[in-house]
């Protein structure tokens, strides 16, 4: 089985945070929030000017993907791990923070400051073109209780961010939507709602789940399996583990299953971050070499590339991300890669397990 995967040279392009209304809706919001603790942190310096994708961002990414063909003649497919809702910032500002549950704006609608005309026309066209495959990232990405408590106690960074329709603050950055510190009942309602909204929007249930911030516990795994998910992303990157040890452990055990879930192999980080140079630390050359190493281990190469590389307040940053992606895809196609989704990997593994 492992040698078959090595010959196939499969690549899965997983990309988190699509549909997320964070970090900065516009330049004014970023200027107002740049000095807050979350925005001035190491993560904030990377992500602070990332933004909700525009119609032009999705169209440009589709055109980049359609410029290549894998060894099977099909174009690369972008697995866009998608959030299904955003906080209703205007209602929070108007009604206060005493409710137990967040008021939400549901995709394809967005809060007023985050409007992106034509975005969903481009998403649908990209799906129809065969290069955009949504999977589930969560309901809203936020540790709801932690954020509401910060707002209630008057945390300055949370209150200031709210005025710019931004949820990012110290309390949010220290937790996650499905973190064990959030109430179990709230987490379960969130995942139930996320699955239902995904199915309604895309006309099919999600097969694969990537929990936000790689924070979750066995409660989420059991519920995701009950809801019909069959693939879990990011197990090797799960928060709270020694990163290198986790990657070695899960890589050695693959194909690994827990309950009804297939755990995807450790991710290969492809994060240009505004740098189109192929030789950059997380750039095309290193990613291509890591993909070859995965094939050598008899595994698909799971390449992770977050949205912030391609949707940014600085257009030059986004174009550098696409240029780096084109370099990577060119190299992978030269290597004879075939581009799959998590669900296709699952199906191929299931076929290999059938007798005869």
Q: How do the helices and strands follow one another from N- to C-terminus?
A: HEHHHHEEHEHEHHHHEHEHEEEHEHEH
The largest β sheet comes out as: 6 strands, parallel
Strand content: 5-15%
Distance between the termini: 14 Å
Provide the low-confidence segments as ranges: none
Q: Which shape, going by the Cα principal axes?
A: globular
Oligomeric state = single chain
Secondary-structure arrangement, i.e. CATH architecture: Alpha-Beta Barrel
Rg of Cα set = 20 Å
DSSP helical segment count = 16
Count the domains.
Answer: 1
CATH topology description:
7-stranded beta/alpha barrel
Mean of all residue-level pLDDT scores? 94
Helix content: 40-55%
Number of strands: 12
CATH domain class name: Alpha Beta
Find the structural class using helix and strand composition: alpha/beta
């Amino acid at each position: 089985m492992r040698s078959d995967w090595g010959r196939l040279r499969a690549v899965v392009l997983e990309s988190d945070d699509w549909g997320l209304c964070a970090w900065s809706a516009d330049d004014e919001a970023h200027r107002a929030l740049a000095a807050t603790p979350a925005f001035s942190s190491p993560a904030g310096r990377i992500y602070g000017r990332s933004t909700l994708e525009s119609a032009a961002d999705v169209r440009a990414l589709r055109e980049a993907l359609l410029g290549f063909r894998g060894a099977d003649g099909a174009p690369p497919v972008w697995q866009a791990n998608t959030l299904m809702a955003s906080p209703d910032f205007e209602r929070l500002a108007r009604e206060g923070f005493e409710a137990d549950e967040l008021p939400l704006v549901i995709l394809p609608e967005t809060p007023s400051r985050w409007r992106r005309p034509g975005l969903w026309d481009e998403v649908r066209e990209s799906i129809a073109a065969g290069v955009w495959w949504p999977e589930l990232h969560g309901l809203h990405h936020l540790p709801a209780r932690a954020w509401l408590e910060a707002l209630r106690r008057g945390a300055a960074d949370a209150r200031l961010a709210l005025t710019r329709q931004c949820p990012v603050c110290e309390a949010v950055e220290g937790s996650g939507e499905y973190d064990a510190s959030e109430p179990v009942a709230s987490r379960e309602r969130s995942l139930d709602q996320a699955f239902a909204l995904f199915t309604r929007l895309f006309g099919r249930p999600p097969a694969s789940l990537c929990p936000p911030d790689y924070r979750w516990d066995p409660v989420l795994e059991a519920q995701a399996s009950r809801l019909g998910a069959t693939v879990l992303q990011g197990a090797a990157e799960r928060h709270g583990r020694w990163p290198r040890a986790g990657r070695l452990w899960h890589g050695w055990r693959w194909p690994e299953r827990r309950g009804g879930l297939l755990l995807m192999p450790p991710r290969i980080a492809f994060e240009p971050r505004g740098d189109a140079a192929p030789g950059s630390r997380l750039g095309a050359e290193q990613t291509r070499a890591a993909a070859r190493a995965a094939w050598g281990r008899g595994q698909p190469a799971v390449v992770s590339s977050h949205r912030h590389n391609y949707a940014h307040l600085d257009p030059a940053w986004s174009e550098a991300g696409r240029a780096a992606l084109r370099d990577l895809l060119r190299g992978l196609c030269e290597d004879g890669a075939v581009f799959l989704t998590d669900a296709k990997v699952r199906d191929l593994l299931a076929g290999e397990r059938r007798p005869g």
